[in-house]
Automatic annotation (TrEMBL), chain B:
Domain ABC transmembrane type-1: 88-297
Protein name: Sugar ABC transporter permease
Signal peptide start-end: none
Presence of the UniProt keyword Cytoplasm in the record: no
Keyword Transmembrane attached: yes
Cell compartments where the protein resides: Cell membrane
InterPro entries linked to this entry: MetI-like (IPR000515), MetI-like_sf (IPR035906)
Amino acid sequence: MSATAPTTPAPPATVGTRNTPGPSPARRRSAALGLLAWLAGILFVLPLAWMTLTSFHSEEDAATNPPSVAASLTLDGYREFFGAAGGASPWPALINSTVASVGSTLLVLVLALPAAYALSIRPVKKWTDVLFFFLSTKMLPVVAGLLPLYLFAKNTGMLDNIWLLVLLYTSMNLPIAVWMMQSFLAEVPVAVIEAAQIDGAKLPTVLARVVAPIAAPGIAATALICFIFSWNELLFARVLTGVVAQTAPVFLTGFITSQGLFLAKVCAASLVISLPVLAAGFAAQDKLVQGLSLGAVK
Amino acid sequence: MTATAAPPAGTDAAAPVTHRPSRLRAWATRAPLLPALVFMIVVTQLPFVATLVISFFDWNALYPDARSFAGFGNYQEVLTDPDLRKSVFTTILLTATVVLVSLVLGLALALLLDRKFRGRAAVRTLLIAPFLLVPVAAALLWKHVLYNPEYGLLNGLLNWVGGPQPDWVSNTPLLAIEASLIWQWTPFMMLILLAGLQSRSPELLEAARIDGASNVQIFRHMTLPHLRRYLELGALLGSIYIVQHFDAVFTITSGGLGTANLPYTVYQSFYQAHENGLASAAGVLVVIGSLIIATFALRVVSSLFREEVSRA
């Protein structure tokens, strides 16, 4: 995305009027639109900013009307969230979420990389059909198989088992990963691979020395996007886990009903649990669209 | 698994010039694909087939012995039961509202961001942030921090200017859910449309400007036609994600006040009411809805995809 920015031509008006005294109407309009963009950005981030501020307020200051913007800051909300007052500790849920997200992301990479290879660098016959089969499975909603999966888990003793979620999150993300990686691997020039092979390089060498350096940023972005989707998932986790394998979003559902003064704690909890997603999302920012649009938009 | 029949892919791929029995070669090429394919079929397609089968049975998990074949009975019940039928309409209304509003807002933001101005990257980052909140966390933020009638931010701001103090979730429950989803999904639409805007040919735009085309003319006759497929893509992908959205409905209203959509109904009818047959029929209906949208989505993706491939 940022790569295309320099190629966009500057508005001609700003170039032509640079030397004239006083801002021209076109220039003033341009400045106004820039200001509007800033206002929109601030408006969109305002709820999030307010949540951050509230998480650092005491419960009493958090629950005032009109709001106390300048109240003194404290870490009590975070202490409460991490179980200082004897509530349930969020650590097991955070660890479960980490296992489910990282585990499924690794499994996705193991399955998707060879598949993407067979769909781009050394394509099978009718490879577009295969690619679209993967995409069509992504269009199948979660509820399509929820009940049989629940019954299966119940009968095999897999209920409340984090490894079941690892498998399900893998199936949730595999189509996206195959699509994204296919498009990244397709960017590796065939001529370069052939040249290396003519020089006698074996396949592992070609993959490690030629393909990996070119495709690595894309693979990393794919992994981050799979991580985000797994970390966010609620419906499977809610139905298939209980006490032991509870994930972070399920832990958050404990805040659905009000419990007296608990705003600061809710804000702290929401922020802490969203932090990995915010970090991964900003890290993968440039490839985010490509992942979310299943590779259709670059 | 059939993959075992293939020789190690390494030796084969490294020697594309050797002449082997072509069948063996074909399997060697396919081998890397098979684990992913088999995994997807087992984990996604089989459960759906099971859902399809269960949907034709009258089956309450609390009375497992009373299981009997019901034909289309469950579908009839889903479509005639007033509550269930309402959830079909709620799903359609929720999806259409969220997708359309966030698409329009996303287009406006994308157009603003397509221009050069000081701090463009920073504004883009600010705008993406709502999308990067865990959906349950975002829903909690709206439910407790913004909508709370006593000390929520919305009523706090209204109080400052001496406005009324409405109970947002009770008065307009569906709108409350829609607003929170629009806030989260507008950035998604903006990102897709911004990518569309930036894929316009700069030379063509320059040529149009030199020929004296006004900004409005450029937008109507060049930008909009170019963006059409990106708008379609945003609308369709948004629909696929929102049709199966569960988190905000579950968090903000717990499906109460007439806001239960089909995914919530499926969840509730088997997880709480143990009506397996009914839940499956509702699930199959969600799938049919998604498939209708997906057919169009696949067409758009495939046309964008062909363009990419032919350009490469």
